[in-house]
Amino acid sequence: MLFLEKLKRIFLYDGLKKSDYKKAESYIIKENNRRLRIYNIIAIIFVLGLFVYSLFIRGFESITIIYLLCAMINGVILALLCFKFQDNKIFSTITNYFFTTFFLLFSIYSGTITSNGMPATAFLATIAIIPYILYTKALSGFIHRLIILGIFIALSYKTKSPEYFRTDVINSVVVFLLSSLAGGRVRKLQVNGWVMASNQDKELEKMSANFEFIRTINLQENSSIDYARGSNKKVIGTSDNALKQMDSYIEEWVADNNLDHMRQFCDLSTLEDRMYSQKVLICDFACKDIAWRRATFIVIEEDKKGFPKKVVFTIQLIADSFYLNMLNFDLMQIK
Hints:
The chain contains 11 helices and 6 strands. The chain has helices at residues 2-13, 18-56, 64-83, 89-111, 122-133, 138-159, 162-207, 242-253, 259-265, 268-274, 319-334; strands at residues 213-218, 223-227, 235-239, 280-286, 292-302, 308-317. The radius of gyration is 27 Å and the shape is elongated.
């Protein structure tokens, strides 16, 4: 039973418990869709280039419409990824397999039908990198690539001489097995990283009860995530331009006589240098509602050189303690 359970974890959850894997799913969807947006843009440019090429070169007339159709499909998927279904698990899975299938079938076409007088190279390169470009579960991804491998071998058998066919079979099977094994290791590292990120987010959500405002900022990607305050803790917003978002916050909340030093304190473009080998930066400031607050940057991830990569930005109301200290000071002066 223990062996079967371990095998199940490897094939279905990349060696993790189901509960831990579920924590990483939102990150898997987000990362796959981010990559798919980039890959679809590249695919549209590439296929449109082939479409234009096919209009002027003999021998490509029969597949001109295929190029155009592929570009249109990639365009529709890109639009849906950007505007409507970017966080939908089912849509993410479908587009994931559609893109990799399209990519692999195109390489099969190039490696068999259009180059039947030589060994396949495009397909070997493609099937070698597929496990790395998008995340798929171990078992379903393996079966998907195995089916594609079968299609390649069948077409190679029909279109090539026995000598080239044998070369294609040996090369493709070896590359398929090696890429599957190496891809499994990379996949496990990815999922472990997403689980750690999920646990980190849970801790940040707990912290949010103690602050008026809490935001994680990825300095390298210039992105941020905001967390709700109170008992029902959850992510309430994200941004792909943390620098601009921080500027907006300062303009909206900070009192005019505190603007200059808060702009300097919250300047994300200089924060990496200012927080080199430091863990915390603190600044007290007055808000437009006349209350005093404390802004804090806390490093939660840094690079090998000691520069921060990811920080937490918090705002805490300090009016009561501030005024109490001032009152105590005044009383001491009177005495």
